[in-house]
Amino acid sequence: MTIKDVAAYSGVSVSTVSRVLNDHPDVSDGVRERVWAAVHALHYVPNNAARDLVRPTSDSIGLVVRGAENPFFTPIIRAIDETAKAAGYTVVLHQIRAGEDELAAAAELARSKRLLGLILLGGSTDYTAERTARLGVPFVCCSFTNSFGTLSAADYSSVSIDDERAAAQAVTLLYERGHRDIGILLSAPDDRSISELRCRGYRRALRENGLASDDALVLACGSYDMSDAYRCVRAAIDGGLCFTALFCISDAMAMAAIKALSDAGVRVPEDCSVIAIDGIESTLYTIPTLTTLVQPKEAMGRRAVGLLDAQLHGGGCRRELLDTALREGGSVCSRRT
Amino acid sequence: MTIKDVAAYSGVSVSTVSRVLNDHPDVSDGVRERVWAAVHALHYVPNNAARDLVRPTSDSIGLVVRGAENPFFTPIIRAIDETAKAAGYTVVLHQIRAGEDELAAAAELARSKRLLGLILLGGSTDYTAERTARLGVPFVCCSFTNSFGTLSAADYSSVSIDDERAAAQAVTLLYERGHRDIGILLSAPDDRSISELRCRGYRRALRENGLASDDALVLACGSYDMSDAYRCVRAAIDGGLCFTALFCISDAMAMAAIKALSDAGVRVPEDCSVIAIDGIESTLYTIPTLTTLVQPKEAMGRRAVGLLDAQLHGGGCRRELLDTALREGGSVCSRRT
C-alpha cells in the first residue's frame, strides 16, 4: 500500500495526499475528508521517514554538556532528557571536555542538525552578544548564568543557583561553628567561571564576619578534576599550611580533599572540617558523609527545558535563581571559640 | 542567492542542481563540474535544512542508556559520543531508568527518529529474536551481551567483558590473599542480568578453590542502587553475619558497602576486605582506595560505535570480549591461612 494507492482511491494527486498527511492549510475540507477516508479504508500507514522529509523543521534541541565527567551533571542530563521528551522534543547530545569552547560546538551542532534551540549545561559566564550570535537559535544556560558577560536580558535564559550567595552561606556556617582559619579549594579565583563567583562569596563571608582574607588559604588547583584537587590539598598540608576548615567549590573536589587530608594524617572532621556545594549521590558515602549545600538538580534540568520551550513558543527570556538546601553530613564539627 | 540562481547560471534544471549537491550518481561528470563551478562562482551556500529534506536517510544513531545514574556509564557515553561524531553520525540520546524496558524505548526511538542503528548501553541479557525484531535496525549491546537469550550470531553485535570470568578472578584474588569466608553483594543471583553472571563467577571460584557455597553470604540487595547496597550490608552486619571479604558486583555498590561496614564498626580492610568490578574515578578516593577490576570503558564505547558502523556498511555482526585490569587499592588485605 503506497501513497499512490491512496491518491487513486480518493481521486486526487499524490501531492495532494501528501499535503493532507502533512496538515498543509491549502487543501479544501472536502478533499481532506476524502483523503483521510481513503487512508482509513485502505489501512494506509504513512511512512514516517517520508513524512519527515517534507517537514519544514526538526523537533530537535541540542544539549551541549561541557565537562561531562562531572557527576553533578548526570541527574541534570536525566531531567532534561525526560522533560524534553515529554514536551515532544528530540534531544541531540554533544559532550565536550571542560576546557573546550561550548559556543563553537553549539553553533556547529545547531547549524548541522537544524536545531530549534540549545541547552548549554556548564559553560562560561562571560558571553558577548557577538559570540552568542553564532548560535542562531534560542538558548538556555543551565547551572550557570552570564555573570561576567555583556548579554542583554533579551538575549538568553538561564537557570542556576546564586553561586556567590551559596558560597557565602557555606563559609558562614563554618564561621558559626567556630572556625576562624578557613581555606577554599577552587579551580582559580579569577577564571570568570563559577569558581570565581564562589571565591567572591568566600571572601564576602570572611569580610562580613570580620575575618581577614589570607591568599595562602586560597588553594587553586587549576581545574575541577578530582586528581588536581587531591594533589593541591596534599601539597598544601605537606607544605605546612594550617586551617581548621576547608570550603570546596564542588562535591567531587571535596571527596578528593577528604582523601588527601586523610592520607596526610589530618582527621576529618576532628582536625579539619570540610563543606562543599553540589550534593551528589557519592558524597553520601564518603567517610565521613559530606556536609554540603545541595543544588536542586532535577528542578534545574526541568526548568532549563521549560525556559527553552517558552522561548520557542514566542515567550521572553528569563533568568531564574534556585535555592540550595543544606545537607548535614559528618564532615563539619564545632570548635570552641 | 538561491538554488534557482545556480540552475540558471549553469544552464541546468533545479532538480539537477539538487542531485549534484546531494551526490546522486545519475549526473554526468560534465554537468557535475558545471554545477559546482556555478556554486563556487556565485558563492552559493547550500541550505542544510533544505538539503536534509531531500536526504534519503538520517545520519542519526540512537544511544539508549538504561540506568543512567550509574557513574560507570559516564566515560562510556563520552567515548561513544566522540567516536560517533568523528565517524559522521549524530547521536540521539535516550536515558531510561534501570527497571525500564530498553527494547521498547529503542524501538520507539528508531521509528520516530529514522535512526540508522542503535547502541544499547546497559540492558537485559535474555533477548529473543521476536523481541529485537521490533528495533528494525542494526544494534550493538554495549557492556553486556546475550548470555541468557536466544539470538543467533547474525542478529546482533556486542562488546563487553567476560562477566563470569572477571568475577571469578576477583574472588580468586581474595582466596589467594587467605580469605575463606567470602560474601558477594549483588542485585539478585538469578535476575538474568550481569548480576547473575557475576554470581556464577563467584560460585565457580569458590568451587574451584575447594570452598563450599553458603547462601547466607549471598547478599541480594535487589538493585544496583547505592542506597540499597548500603542497607543490605548494614543489615547483614547488624544481623551478625560474619565474613572476612566481600566481592561487590559494582564499584558504586562497593563504595556504599565500605560506608556501611565503617558505620557498623567493621574496619576495611583490617576486619573485612572489599573488591569490586568496574573501576570508576570516585573509588580512587574512597578510604581506603578500592581494589577493583577495571573495565576498559573508553575502548568499550569506541568499539560499540565501530561494531555498529561495520554493520551499517554491510559488515557482519561480532561479539567482542574485552579484558579487565586489576587496580590495586587498599581495600584488600592478606590473612594468615
Mean pLDDT, all residues of chain A:
90
Biggest chain pair interface: A-B, 43 and 44 residues
Globally, the shape of chain A reads elongated
The unreliable regions of chain A are 47-56
Number of helical segments with 4 or more residues of chain A: 12
Rg of chain A over CA atoms, rounded to whole Å, is 26 Å
Spatially, the strands of the biggest sheet of chain A line up as 2-1-3-4-5-11
Subunit organisation of the chains: homodimer
Structural class of chain A, please?
A: alpha/beta
H-E order of chain A = HHHHEHEHEHEEHEHEHEHEEHEE
Q: What share of residues are in beta strands of chain A?
A: 15-25%
First-residue to last-residue Cα separation of chain A: 84 Å
Helix content of chain A: 40-55%
Strand tally of chain A: 12
Biggest beta-sheet profile of chain A: 6 strands, parallel
Q: Keyphrases for this structure?
A:
17% strand; six-stranded mixed β-sheet; six-stranded parallel β-sheet; alpha/beta; 337 residues; homodimer
